[in-house]
Write a structure and sequence with these properties.
By secondary structure, the protein is of the alpha/beta class. Among the domains are: 97 residues, Urease, subunit C, domain 1 (Roll); 111 residues, Roll (Diaminopimelate Epimerase, Chain A, domain 1), CATH 3.10.310.70. It is built from 16 helices and 23 strands. The strands form four sheets. Strands 7-14-15-16-17-18-19-20 form an eight-stranded parallel beta sheet. A six-stranded mixed beta sheet has the order 8-9-10-11-13-12. It has a five-stranded mixed beta sheet with strand order 2-6-21-22-23, covered by helices on one side. β8, α3 and β9 form a beta-alpha-beta unit. α7 packs across α8, α12 packs across α14 and α15 packs across α16. It is globular and about 75 Å long. The chain starts with 6 loop residues before the first strand and ends with a strand. The chain binds zinc ion. The site of zinc ion has 4 residues, from loops.
Length: 508
């Protein structure tokens, strides 16, 4: 006798995103028992599992997909955006300053803003003088969207400049402009890190935000924070409505090794991922490491971590049986990552971002057992007259983030947002409607990057990423079919389900 289901989601257009996905719905309903999918079928067939205690959710014709997995995110940042001044998408400096002034009035201590993007206006970073208008008594910091650069006021410079590497404090005629890059930011980061209780508030806010965007799992990049402990606290208290995979920053490697943590250790909801390092910086900050100079400056970018250190780290991480994940944006950096992985024995080492790609690197990325952890949303900067046109020039702009070319060549793609913004449908829209054909993916392939592709990057392909019997009951219900609209980014998320529990419902 078949047991009754705990939950039935019915009257939907179910897309399992398994092989053979055509964009036409392949089932109407799913049944869930103990958090696992036990039937994917017609509404009629699934109704046989409807018992007296079964919760039945009427999808009212909506599109049901596997839940989105954001393979590269920073949940503390998402929480910060929710709790501090959110400068993302702001069109002019004055509006940034207005938001920072509001934040000043509503808070004590540090006045923080996150996510500004000077390419929205003339390209000038916020300055010390502008931020001195917010306060001359409290420290003020406005982080650029990529977090590799921040603008600060005089209070910050007076208090911390002597602890910062001189080369990372930008000056004009010998005077600091208020613009800080890379290692100069570390000092500030320590100062503004929340305690465990504060972290729990940030992570709760970030989790709510993720669920509202259809996200059921994240690969979180953590560094010097209470997040790993707080996630486990939340897991024990049954407060996690996300599956969290923790990628530890390289400065935690010794601690991870000593504590006996290894990739894939963990619970149903919190798992150990890999060890992450930078190699280079960002295109926006002209710190991504290129083989040819930037188009708008006679520079080739920086090694944020020197190549020899990266090679040694990969060897150590690989020998320990941990997954490695390397931030590499410029073509030189991508080449370094591939070289470093050449002698690795472990599987599924990852390269994060993979933006400035040469033809010879496409081949290597396709041939090697490496996961390309890309951000389709970054194609927003690859538009005509966009940031990448300025920084990289025409040829490298249209060759950047070549997701279609990489997939066609046989590369393994996993998609994440890097929280710019943390919105899978926005990213999917960007690659489906990409500026150049090599950057373009079909709707199905783009969705797979955010589902089965991301699941694979997290060794989760046997339980996540597709709607199949035996998999975890993680779903997103969309108000419209992404195969049948020109505005994928504009589709409303109707409902998010994790382990059979409705964790977000737009109707409430
Ligand atoms: Zn990142």
């Amino acid at each position: 006798m078949t047991q009754a289901a705990d939950v039935i989601l019915t009257n939907g257009a179910v897309h399992p995103l398994t092989n053979g996905e055509t964009g036409a719905p392949r089932a109407e309903a799913v049944a869930v028992k103990d958090g696992t999918i036990v039937r994917v079928d017609s509404a009629y067939e699934v109704d046989f599992l409807n018992g007296v205690e079964t919760d039945v959710v009427d999808l009212e014709g909506r599109t049901l997909l596997p839940g989105f997995i954001d393979a590269h995110t920073h949940m503390v940042m998402v929480g910060r955006y929710a709790a501090e001044a959110d400068l993302s998408g702001v069109a002019d400096p004055q509006s940034c300053l207005d938001l920072l002034a509001n934040q000043r009035d509503e808070s004590e201590g540090w006045v923080l803003g996150f996510g500004y993007d000077e390419s929205n206006w003339g390209g000038d970073y916020l300055t010390r003088d502008q931020l001195d208008n917010i306060s001359t008594e409290r420290p003020v910091v406005a982080y650029r969207e990529d977090m590799h650069l921040a603008s600060v006021n005089s209070v910050v410079l007076n208090g911390y400049q002597d602890q910062m590497p001189t080369g990372d404090v930008r000056t004009e005629s010998g005077e600091p402009t208020g613009v800080l890059v890379e290692d100069a930011l570390d000092v500030l980061w320590d100062e503004i890190s929340p305690d465990p209780a504060g972290m729990r508030e940030y992570l709760r806010a970030a989790q709510d935000e993720a669920n509202s965007l259809g996200i059921t799992g994240v690969h979180d990049m953590v560094r010097q924070s209470h997040a790993p402990r707080v996630y486990r606290d939340m897991d024990m208290d049954d407060e996690l409505s996300l599956r969290v995979r923790i990628n530890y920053w390289r400065d935690h490697l010794d601690a991870v090794l000593e504590a006996g943590l290894r990739t894939n250790h963990g619970s149903d909801r919190v798992q150990v991922g890999g060890i992450k390092t930078f190699t280079d910086g960002s295109i926006g900050g002209r710190t991504a490491r290129l083989s040819e100079p930037y188009d708008d400056a006679d520079e080739v970018g920086d090694w944020v971590v020197d190549p020899e250190t990266v090679r040694e780290l990969v060897e150590q991480v690989d020998d320990a049986g941990l997954q490695m994940t390397i931030h590499a944006i410029g073509d030189n950096a991508i080449e370094l990552a591939l070289d470093a992985y050449e002698s690795a024995d472990g599987e599924r080492h990852r390269i994060e971002h993979v933006e400035v790609v040469r033809d010879d690197l496409v081949e290597r990325l396709a041939d090697d057992d490496v996961v390309v952890s890309a951000q389709p949303n970054f194609l927003k900067w690859a538009r005509e007259d966009g940031l990448y046109a300025d920084r990289l020039g025409e040829e490298r702009r249209t060759a950047s983030n070549p997701l279609g070319t990489l997939l066609a060549a046989g590369a393994t793609l996993a998609f994440g947002s890097d929280c710019m913004p943390m919105d899978p449908l926005f990213g999917i829209d960007q690659t489906v409607n990409a500026p150049a054909s090599g950057q373009e993916l079909s709707v199905t392939d783009a969705l797979r990057g955010y589902t089965s592709g991301a699941a694979y990057a997290g060794f989760d392909e046997d339980r996540l990423g597709t709607i199949e019997e035996g998999n975890c009951a993680d779903f997103v219900a969309l108000a419209e079919s992404p195969w049948e609209t020109d505005d994928i980014a504009g589709i409303d998320v109707s409902m998010t389900v994790v382990g059979g529990d409705v964790v977000y419902d737009a109707r409430e």
